[in-house]
Design brief:
- It contains 8 helices and 14 strands.
- It is of the alpha+beta class.
- The longest helix has 13 residues.
- The radius of gyration is 20 Å and the shape is globular.
- The relative contact order is 0.09.
- GO terms for molecular function: CoA-ligase activity.
- Belongs to the ATP-dependent AMP-binding enzyme family.
């Protein structure tokens, strides 16, 4: 972002901390574009839904670019229900090791595909490897994505072992991200390879669990990760809820929601 701003002559502002003041800073400095991660988007949605002045300030933005992690469909719909088309919400994908990889053009007819992080930028090659193979929530085969291009790093400074495990001999960068590519060239992310949970011989993406639970209006934010008490792993979930008091019945309801059924209790 910084290099692109310098190249295009764009005035950019960098915050030490993202917080409640952000909507007012958008208004005060006449900011038109913002780059956020999904957790920051949760905050923007909450601010706009609870404070009419904050919503008005945020509507000064023309574009919100979301990257850093897969974007849950429920979060995207919450954003659109508040802001409609202003600002426009676009996804992107990149890594520190090779920069910008994919995004949607502003007028791309598929820009509202919440499950995709866009199409590849120029000069980038991508392949779905045979490592960390799993199945996406929509039943597609997914695996670790490898990329190659002129912007790929030459290596990690003073760390030859990490460089050797990340770059192949023929120049492919192992991104550490699990995903797949459809027939139209759109890139889809499932999760980070190191975050994939192995349960009873099956692979489970934490993002899949988080996406299901985030559909509940009672869930403000959620994070799933692995707990390994034996040779097998088990998913555990942390939830920030909107209940005044959380009880076991609500916990059972969410458990059944993950399993694809409805709780009868």
């Amino acid at each position: 972002m910084m290099i692109n701003s310098l190249r295009l002559g764009i005035t950019s502002y960098y915050l030490k901390r993202f917080g409640d003041a952000f909507p007012h800073l958008v208004n005060d400095y006449e900011i038109t574009e913002a780059m956020v991660v999904p957790s920051m988007l949760v905050t923007l949605v909450e601010q706009a839904s609870e404070d009419i002045d904050a919503k008005a300030d945020l509507q000064g933005l023309k574009l919100v670019l979301c990257a850093g992690a897969p974007l849950a469909e429920s979060l995207r719909m919450r954003f659109l229900s508040i802001f409609y088309d202003t600002p426009k919400l676009i996804q992107a994908y990149g890594t520190s090791e090779c920069g910008w990889l994919s995004t949607f053009g502003y007028e791309d007819p598929d820009v509202d595909d919440a499950k995709s992080v866009g199409r590849l930028t120029d000069a980038i090659q991508i392949r779905v490897s045979d490592e960390h193979v799993t199945t996406s929530p929509d039943g597609k085969k997914a695996a670790e994505l490898w990329v190659k291009g002129p912007q790929v790093m030459s290596g990690y400074r003073n760390d030859p072992d990490l460089t050797a495990s990340t770059l192949t001999d023929d120049g492919w960068l192992k991104t550490g991200d699990v995903g797949y590519i459809d027939d139209t060239g759109k890139v889809f992310l499932v999760d980070r390879a190191k975050d994939i949970i192995k349960v009873d011989g099956h692979t489970v993406a934490p993002f899949e669990i988080e996406s299901v639970l985030s559909e509940s209006p009672e869930v403000k934010d959620v994070a799933a990760l692995a707990s390994q008490k034996s040779e097998d792993e088990h998913p555990i979930v942390f939830i920030e809820d909107s209940f005044s008091k959380f009880d076991k019945a609500q916990g059972r309801k969410m458990r059944d929601q993950i399993r694809g059924g409805d709780s009868e209790e």
